[in-house]
Design goal:
- The protein is an alpha+beta fold.
- It is 29% helix and 13% strand.
- The strands form two sheets. Strands 3-2-11-10-9-8-7 form a seven-stranded antiparallel β-sheet, with helices on both faces. A four-stranded antiparallel β-sheet has the order 1-5-6-4.
- Helix 3 packs parallel to helix 7.
- The radius of gyration is 20 Å and the shape is globular.
- The chain binds ligand LEXYNWIZ.
- Residues 120-121, 189-190, 195, 224, 226, 275-276, 324-326, 352-354, 379, 384 line the site of ligand LEXYNWIZ.
- Ligand LEXYNWIZ binds at residues 120-121, 189-190, 195, 224, 226, 275-276, 324-326, 352-354, 379, 384.
């Protein structure tokens, strides 16, 4: 425990730890996603996995830093029991931005405003924005067949899918998104992407893995499938003739005028882990949300068309959401363009990642809330519910404070 009562999940000692206490080993490729390494690994991922830089280029915006680590910001004091709830949900960073200003921020001991943090599947929402940028520039259309860009996929699950299907995850794939089962396709995918040690018979890289996937049933229903985002990134490379990481830098990241470069993990062939591998600071992630709330405009130029940003905020078709965990938390919820829509009365929309990552938008009060966390488990339903309640309480408290508290 630290002096202010926050438990540090991991504190990596050096091998020459003078205390003589048991030395916690540095996480390796097969342990970094597990306790007690989660917090350290999520804030140092480029020291564990091969990674590429997503350069910010151009001039940066400067972020004023007002909050001390561990202090509950004044603007959030009406949220019941906030300090305990931040600790309970393994929060590493909490940041609130409204009108271009940081109105509250909180960091766990050992984490700070300049630290990159893994955002897991919030990376997918970034990929969706790159795809939207290609639509804006006339490089593809939503009804274009995926195989017109990636003919290697003509015999598998994506044979009949369109770019729009990828964006809304309405492709049926034999793919078990089970984060903890070594026999799941998700873990085989991760091994091909270099997130775990490869086993005999595993494909050598992500494109090799994507080529093995077969279809599982009727199309047109939502199926959350991380592979589908990597297919989208592969198609982006083919449509532009450039690496996904460079497209992400040029079309999205650099236009946000972020304070820092971001990073993304890459496989043996250099293919970026578009579905979950991006790390960035909380403040820079909030700029993504600000851009969507601003109708696709960013300080360094337009990222997506206004209509694209409106579609994200409007949400997808809730009728496509069959038997999904998301709708047990948000009954009217949906998914579109690689973003989650709560369907709640405030119209909250979010990028979401396992282990507690949120890029939460409140259109009514033009507020962005970023919460970066290191839950020990990837996606326990109780953790999802606890965190969802916290995000809604934060939103209400902030909205009340700025007079935008319509229900
Ligand atoms: N390939 C490794 C990275 C996988 C990242 C997966 C992730 O962050 N998934 C988010 C799942 C959200 C599920 C929401 C729900 O159904 O309630």
């Amino acid at each position: 425990m630290t002096a202010d009562g926050h438990s540090l999940q991991v504190d990596l000692p050096t091998s020459a730890d003078p205390s003589g206490e048991e030395v916690s080993p540095r996480p390796g490729v097969d342990t970094w996603q597990e306790p007690p390494h989660v917090r350290w690994a999520f804030t140092h991922l480029s020291e564990v996995l091969p990674s590429a830089r997503i350069p910010r280029r151009g001039s940066r915006s400067h972020t004023a830093v007002g909050q001390q680590a561990g202090e509950v910001p004044a603007a959030l004091q009406r949220v019941p029991d906030l300090a305990r709830r931040l600790d309970e949900t393994h929060t590493d960073a909490l940041l609130v931005v409204r009108g271009g200003e940081v109105c509250a921020q909180w960091y766990a001991p050992g984490c700070g405003p300049d630290d990159l943090h893994l955002v897991m599947s919030v990376s997918k929402s970034l990929c969706g924005l790159v795809a939207g940028s290609l639509v804006m520039d006339g490089l593809w259309r939503l009804d274009d067949p995926v195989v017109s860009f990636v003919p290697e996929l003509a015999d598998g699950a994506y044979a009949r899918a369109t770019i729009g299907d990828l964006l809304d995850m309405t492709v049926s794939v034999d793919y078990d998104e089970d984060y903890l089962n070594p026999r799941s396709e998700l873990q085989r995918h991760d091994r091909s992407a270099g997130w775990r040690t490869a086993r005999p018979g595993d494909p050598a890289d992500t494109p090799g893995f994507l080529r093995t996937l077969t279809g599982a049933g009727p199309q047109g229903r939502f199926q959350y499938c991380s592979a589908t985002t990597d297919v989208l990134a592969w198609a982006i490379e083919r449509a532009t003739g450039a690496r996904y990481v460079d497209q992400l830098a040029d079309r999205v990241w650099s236009r946000l005028r972020p304070d820092h470069d971001a990073m993304v993990t890459v496989d043996r062939s250099g293919f970026a882990h578009a579905d979950g591998g991006v790390s960035c600071t909380a403040r820079d992630l909030a700029r993504v949300g600000e851009m969507v709330l601003a109708g696709g405009r960013a300080p360094g130029g337009r990222v997506v068309a206004a209509q694209w940003a409106e579609s994200i905020l409007a949400g997808g078709d809730p009728r496509q959401m069959v038997d999904q965990g998301w709708t047990s938390v948000y009954p009217g919820g949906s998914y579109t363009r690689q973003w989650w829509c709560t369907g709640n009365r405030r119209g909250n929309v979010t990028g979401l990642g396992i282990h507690g990552q949120h890029l939460w938008l409140d259109p009514q009060s033009s507020t962005v809330i970023v919460k970066l966390s290191s839950w020990p488990q990837p996606d326990a339903e109780q953790d999802q519910r606890t965190q969802a309640l916290l995000m809604e309480d934060l939103t209400r408290a902030l909205a009340a404070e700025c007079g935008a508290d319509s229900p």
